[in-house]
Design a protein that fits this description.
transmembrane helix; Lipocalin; 2 domains; 2 helices; membrane; DUF2147 domain-containing protein; eight-stranded antiparallel beta barrel; alpha+beta; 163 residues
């Protein structure tokens, strides 16, 4: 029996086969390169995903600050915007009256150490705070404008004992 040969089928010329194999190698190399490169680059998370997974300094903190040579109770409320900038308010009792002030971050430095500008009826100055790893507490130093911060200001969970 004679094998059936389809006359309409034409074999590719040798030069074309070599080019196809070269093209396949190029495509495989290209795909492998993309896979390798994508593993090297960190792809940023969407803002909503990052905000849910990473601890942030936003919250309500109760603590102590040094005012008129006395440690007084202070409540500090902080918010964080989409760019990570901290702003907030604070209040403390001062000779039987409540003093209220505002806080705004000076620049935007990522991390647990932040510098804020405070402003209240006494003037303004800076507050440098260091948060714990989970942003549950902070220890800080404050001072009037143009003076190195050296006065205590701390905060923690309002349900925890104040130290």
């Amino acid at each position: 029996m004679k094998p059936v040969v389809n006359q309409s089928y034409k074999a590719a010329p040798a030069w074309h086969v070599g080019r196809m194999e070269s093209g396949k190698r190029w495509a495989i190399t290209w795909i492998a390169g993309i896979c390798f490169a994508s593993g090297l680059f960190h792809l940023p998370l969407p803002v909503y995903a990052a905000s849910k997974s990473l601890p942030r300094p936003a919250g309500h903190y109760c603590g102590k600050l040094l005012s008129s040579d006395r440690l007084v109770d202070v409540e500090t409320s902080l918010q964080v915007d989409a760019k990570g900038h901290i702003a907030g308010t604070y209040r403390f009792k001062d000779d039987g009256k409540t003093t209220v002030g505002t806080l705004s971050e000076i620049g935007t430095t990522p991390g647990r150490v932040r510098t804020l500008r405070w402003f209240d009826k006494y003037g303004m100055g800076s507050l440098t705070i260091r948060f714990d790893a989970g942003y549950h507490r902070f220890e800080g130093l404050w001072g009037p404008q143009d003076i190195t911060p050296s006065y205590t200001w701390n905060g923690g969970s309002c349900n925890a004992p104040i130290s």
